[in-house]
Amino acid sequence: RDLHSFTTRRSSDLELDDNLIRAKAFFAHTYTEMGDNDNAIDILIPALKQAQKLGDKEGEAAILSSFGTTYTNKGNLDLMISYHEKALEIYNETGNEEQSIASLFTIGYSYKDKGDLDKALGYYERTIVIAEKLDNKRFIKNFLITLAEVYKLKGDIDTALKLFKRREAINVTELTKHDT
């Protein structure tokens, strides 16, 4: 889940900047995906300091998101949420709505895993609002199924079915082959 979302983000997020901050985030993420969380953290700590020193808000947010993923793998959802909340704040500040979507969804997913379905719904609903604003059908289609799942877990089968039907009504021909 995380590797796919990370690698499909805007290409500008993965471009090598002069200070390689995003490359360091990607490198650390690779360690995280391999289960080597300690090496990932060893890369992320100085990279975060570097981004903050340079005033690179997008780089800082990317590093914070990578910290969040690393702490998810270490089983610490509270720290994961904290790091993604900090990244979300920066993405909101910089107007990066696509990355805001990713952070909102990830935080919502963590609350769902923790069993706090009401908080999960709040984050998922904010995710849908932004995805609809951006008219990102791939995001909408993916998020509606997750939103329906939470309503199902809450016992609201009618709402879950409505969301599932809404998801199925999204015109697949408007999506790219990669999106389906």
Structure description:
With 180 residues, the protein is mainly alpha-helical. Helices cover 79% and strands 0% of the residues. It is built from 10 helices and no strands. It has helices at residues 2-7, 11-14, 21-33, 37-54, 57-73, 77-94, 97-114, 117-134, 137-153, 157-169. Helix 7 (97-114) runs parallel beside helix 9 and helix 9 (137-153) runs antiparallel to helix 10 (157-169). The longest helix is centred in the first third of the chain and has 18 residues, at 37-54. It is globular. Mean pLDDT is 86; it is low at 1-16.
**Strand composition percent:** under 5%
Average of the residue pLDDT scores: 86
**Which structural class fits the helix and strand makeup?**
mainly alpha
Secondary structure: helix percent: over 70%
Largest sheet: number of strands, sense, barrel closure = none
SSE topology string: HHHHHHHHHH
Rg to the nearest angstrom?
Answer: 17 Å
Tally of alpha and pi helices: 10
Global morphology? globular
The separation of the N and C termini measures: 15 Å
Describe what is shown at a glance:
This protein is mainly α and 180 residues long. It contains ten helices and no strands.
